[in-house]
Write a structure and sequence with these properties.
The structure is a homodimer. The longest helix of chain A is centred in the middle third of the chain and has 21 residues, at about 210-230. Chain A has helices spanning about 25-30, 45-60, 80-90, 105-115, 130-135, 175-190, 195-210, 210-230, 250-260, 265-285, 290-300, 315-320, 350-360; strands spanning about 1-5, 15-20, 35-40, 65-70, 100-105, 125-130, 140-145, 150-155, 160-165, 325-330, 330, 335-340, 340-345. Chain A is of the alpha/beta class. In chain A, about 45% of the residues lie in helices and about 20% in strands. At the A-B interface, helix 3, strand 7, strand 8 and strand 10 of A face helix 3, strand 7, strand 8 and strand 10 of B.
Chain lengths: ~375, ~375
């Protein structure tokens, strides 16, 4: 088991990475203020792993409430959130109850937002079971739900007490979701870690073959990168180049997700296509050369990720991007690449170039 | 104008109290990070004061979005909250937009929770227009909405940047709401400030006649008491005798509000009846004598507040109180009075005595 620490003063916490963490119940019980927990999962993950978690918790004397939600980004909304509140209240969970998220990014976002707002805040633990959740959603405390007018528009920052990233749970992950997770892994290389990008390029076949050691290393290095960024800018308030850099490809990607309807494209897929658009625009600004853009496309394509965006048309993209949280005082701030391994926030991209980059990257 | 400071390290803020604060727009504009604000009000308050606020903001160069909600505790729910989100998104309010609550406690709770969760948190300013909101809801950062199974079950702690308690807005307050506010004023005397209780008893006729100086003094002293308590226990995590003391009468009162249906009883009215139950139970535990209990009833009755609870029956009360946030690990913690001017949290009241106290205080 590898352990990383996320340094956030009194909200600091550990991320444990390795096989069979679901059986190491003490990693959870050590963090519970009282012997009460509510495990939130979904209809896909619950049959695979829920009993393993709840039975070991109960054997340790914990009163456990189980809440099973429908699966998918299309359910990351108020109705599903309310299902969690209903379950907590029906089981008389009080505000010392720890909410445990067992599932992918959607479960983490929903359960985390429920933890942030149930009785004005209860403790929270993450057990991410997808690669994307392990390398991204479970680090940094972002929680929330979607609004019909925009993704993640309603939410809170709420840090977990501990994160258990069990590599064995990746064995049951569909291929498409493995690829979606790799999009975020590749992102860390692109924005701030060129040696890691080179390692990914050299080891992509092992990652695609689910080599346990390669995956554990990729998770650890991704989480370490994210933890460093988050520690420097917990609430994404830095004007430039703080936590916002983690959003490479996300503003374009959110437009795809919102424009097509949540759930059609996986988040990681939309981010992949969005990173290509960001690379294309970076090229048009004179920062990346054509070979760099091709290199971005190539590593994403090898991970079986889309490198061509949804055909919404530039107008619709720009309209949807105008709702993005990265808009500050009316100006669209994008994350672009100064070079491979170094991202920057940029509010001065000419709208014509943004349109041209979108056009160039859509079918 | 009197100004109090609430000391919460980097979340500290000022409360200004006095006449005509709505016209002193600089008290607001000084706190805006960008020239964008969204003023949230309701159908009762908006015709009286909304234009005065928004016109002066616009004259100062601020882009203002107006959001007007239906009035009343029965609307303190997800649907109404979503009306705020819809208004913010439709007007493309970004996360530098400051949300301004203009209204009573319900507006403060709704707008504050919207501020805590819109794009994971935006700045917030309170302009409370009712006595209850001025002395209670606007201090301390509690925000939230009701759930069919319990009051204030969903929410967050979110501190305002500044509070403007304008005493002239109390001129338009219905008598019943003035009384409801006085319930919380009296509460501060009961829980921690016997000299203030004595001042209230001596000046209750002036308060009921809306004497401006008497009201300003009562607001200031109430806010000062609350600010001291909150500064010592911002998130109500103290095991004993911290912020929880502010909930005198609230656990019983919430049972009335939930049991009868939100909106029938005003919050302050339910708290008044709840404080009588707490005093009665304190007497049964040997802490207050009968004359003390009568004194509590007398000052509340002089403020035209109910001193007899809703006839739900002790079983229903206890069931509803079991959902209360003051339940920790299955034990009901009540706020009771050791003596007039000194409250304590208490988890050891025998259930039989709780039932007897409820019985004694219901019609």
């Amino acid at each position: 088991m590898r352990t990383l620490s996320v340094a956030l003063s009194d909200r600091s916490y550990d991320i444990h990475i390795g096989p069979n963490l679901l059986d190491r119940v003490q990693l959870i019980t050590d963090r519970l203020p009282t012997a009460q927990a509510a495990v939130v999962s979904n209809t896909i993950v619950a049959p695979l792993y829920l009993a393993r978690v709840t039975e070991s918790l109960r054997a340790a004397g914990i009163r456990v409430t189980e809440i099973v939600l429908p699966d998918g980004e299309s359910h990351k909304n108020w109705e599903t959130l309310n299902t969690i509140f209903d379950g907590l209240l029906a089981n008389r969970c009080d505000r010392s109850t720890t909410i445990v998220a067992l599932g992918g990014g959607v479960i983490g976002d929903l359960a985390g937002f429920a933890a942030a707002t149930y009785q004005r805040g209860v403790p929270f633990i993450q057990i991410p079971t997808t690669l994307l959740a392990q390398v991204d959603s479970s680090v940094g405390g972002k929680t929330g739900i979607n609004h019909p007018r925009g993704k993640n528009m309603i939410g809170a920052f709420w840090q977990p007490k501990v994160v258990l990233a069990g590599t064995d749970t990746l064995a049951t992950l569909p291929d498409r979701e493995l690829s979606a997770g790799l999009a975020e892994v590749i992102k860390y290389g692109l924005i701030r870690d060129l040696p890691f990008l080179e390692w990914i390029e050299a080891n992509l076949d092992r990652l695609m073959a689910r080599d346990a050691d390669a995956l554990a290393y990729a998770i650890e290095r991704s989480c370490a990168n994210k933890a460093e960024v988050v520690a420097g800018d917990e609430r994404e308030t830095a004007k430039d180049n703080g936590r916002a850099l983690l959003n490479l490809g996300h503003t374009f990607g959110h437009a795809i997700e919102t424009g097509i309807g949540y759930g059609e494209w996986l988040h990681g897929e939309a981010v992949a296509a969005g990173m290509v658009m960001a690379a294309e625009l970076s090229n048009r600004l004179g920062w990346l050369n054509r070979a760099d853009v091709e290199r971005v496309c190539s590593v994403l394509a090898r991970a079986r990720l889309p490198v061509v965006g949804a055909s919404l048309g530039p107008d619709r993209y720009l309209d949807l991007m105008g709702h993005d949280k990265k808009v500050i005082a009316g100006r669209l701030r994008l994350v672009l690449l100064k070079r491979l391994g170094e991202a920057t926030t940029w509010a001065d991209a000419p709208p014509g170039e943004i349109r041209a980059a979108i056009d160039a990257c859509c079918a």
